[in-house]
Protein 1
Amino acid sequence: MFTTILISVLIISLIAAALAAVLAVSENYLGDYGPCKITINKESELEVRGGKSLLALLSQEKIFIPSACGGRGTCGMCKLKVLEGGGPLLPTEEPFLSDEERDSNVRLSCQVKVRNDIEIQIPDEIFAVQEFKCRCADILELTHDIRQFTFELIEPEKIDFVPGQYVQLFTPAYEKSSEEVYRAYSISSDARNDGKIELIIRLVPNGICTTYCFDYLKEGDEVKLNGPYGDFQLSDTEAPIIFIAGGSGMAPIKSMLHQMVNTDNKRKASYFFGANKVSELFLGDLMKDFESQLADFTYVPVVANPEPEENWDGETGLVTEAVKRQIDDASVCEAYLCGSPGMIDASIAVLKELGMKEENIFYDKFA
Ligand code: FES
């Protein structure tokens, strides 16, 4: 009986190994579609080897398309127009495209496999995106699962970004992942300090990039990132501002607050920052500095479940409940939100209840 089981396991293992070998060979040979041409904006042409996604081939040629999920088809950010070639629209793309986008041939570049010549159109600002070689200069533990990483720029030496924008951090293959990936993180630094980029990153269990950053990346190591991307940024109106964030959603709001100090912005602003426990709040001293530097700024930390021994006497419950308690009428305000999809959706619902117009709500949702 035991021998029969052993032989069966052996046969199954051999079949699995043979299948893996066939897949590897197919990937190398059948997945190679030979030389293909990518024509961009009817102007430039790239000669590539077909077989990979359009996103990957463009990135290989140093043309970086926003891709917050690293090409997994879950963020919907890698859109561009495919005017010719590219094959039919895939079911994985459909949920991310409006009727109008489908009619104008918008596709998710991570889902389009290049098998023959292809013609695409991409916005001019994408060409302004650069790749930066950096050195990890400092790693600061903010909470048990959130750290602030400071990267000194080596080449180019400076970055020009608008507070609220994000970069994509490259993770090389390492012990726990054979995949090379990019992940998007909002810049948290002061744009005036253009020789550095600071990111606030929360550890995602089994996350390829965050595990690399938390368990492998050390001060002094070189990393690559590209950017800046995104249009999440302060408007130039005088409308009072409601900021709402949680966890690493602190990043773009912190950068915007530096910007408000630098430009002597006098807009009234309230910042509701949600955490589960008091120990999950961070950068409180910096927020106090902002309160003293800005004309009319209030920081409102909100703790959902404070422990009795934490002696918390501030706002409690969900961050949206605190917003409701403190704001009676949001009809003339603008809101800037950053956090999980659940927190953003709940915040939008509450702000609309308080009279805010949808077009005055700006957000950066984690993919
Ligand atoms: S990179 Fe294509 S959907 Fe995220």
Protein 2
Amino acid sequence: MAPTLDEQMHISGSAEAMLPRAYAIRRVKRETADTFTMEFEPVDGASELTFAAGQFNMLYVFGVGEVPISISGNPANPQTLVHTTRVVGTVTKALGELKRGDRVGIRGAYGRGWPVAAATGNDVVIVAGGIGLAPLRPVMYEMLAAREKFGKVVLLYGTRTPADILFRKELEEWRARFDLEVFITVDRGSPDWRGNVGVVTTLIPKAPFDPTNTLAMICGPEVMMRFTINALQKRGVPAEAIYVSMERNMKCAIGFCGHCQYGGAFICKDGPVFSYAQIQELFGKSEI
Ligand SMILES: Cc1cc2nc3c(=O)[nH]c(=O)nc-3n(C[C@H](O)[C@H](O)[C@H](O)COP(=O)(O)OP(=O)(O)OC[C@H]3O[C@@H](n4cnc5c(N)ncnc54)[C@H](O)[C@@H]3O)c2cc1C
Ligand code: FES
């Protein structure tokens, strides 16, 4: 007799890891025209989903498909599961059309996150481009909760236009702090924009950090990460102190299917965060 689904799940731990759990949308906040933040709560009343800064979940919109989305909430507050998503195609569009009370399937948390503990005692430079600020927001929460453990903390954030700036209220709060340096730049200004105009790399030469004692974390489009790495290296930050978060298509998210293969590594389980020293041979190559 064939095993029941329940039995099958116990035959292979991986089957269980592939099963989404039902979550209900508790709150939706529109960040910009194409980006929204959602809070989720488990429907089955099970315990919260603990995670490390930089990890991601697979979000399944029933009948549409599954996408990897980083967790943008506070790791110290796992009872509030938060994701920030930009609409680019089928699944993210369908997710964006859901409202409070609707259900999605969630599995995770997956992957290796940012090396926050390794940054202890160092200056920290965080460079985010566009939606790349979402996977780095948990790092900000963690560092601010233990601010005394780090040297200078610098956040450099670049978006296309002022209307694309995410987490505006929080950025203002961070900018008002004396123990943080927050610089924001836009590719194209608007009549009421009085801030910096130019790509995010233009901020690096003037950012206040000691390159010999800095850990850098970068998330954004690959081309932005490449130029950021160059600019950091030009200031003397070594490859092993620069961390990037890579994106590839995901299917299983647990190292089985090979969809996310990146040289000898799988981005889903060996990443998405890698030190630049680990991947510099592959970085920037379009076909791997
Ligand atoms: C580890 C990881 C973490 C991620 N975290 C976030 C996050 O926090 N927030 C967020 O908004 N997105 C995040 N993404 C990207 C997100 O998974 C994709 O935007 C999503 O899968 C697109 O699915 P779709 O069905 O909406 O679009 P599709 O219909 O599959 O694609 C629409 C268009 O977008 C392009 N596209 C698809 N996937 C990507 C991608 N990964 N990067 C760039 N272009 C892509 C396609 O080539 C196509 O042109 C993450 C991806 C990975 C791998
Ligand atoms: S998504 Fe299947 S191996 Fe990474």
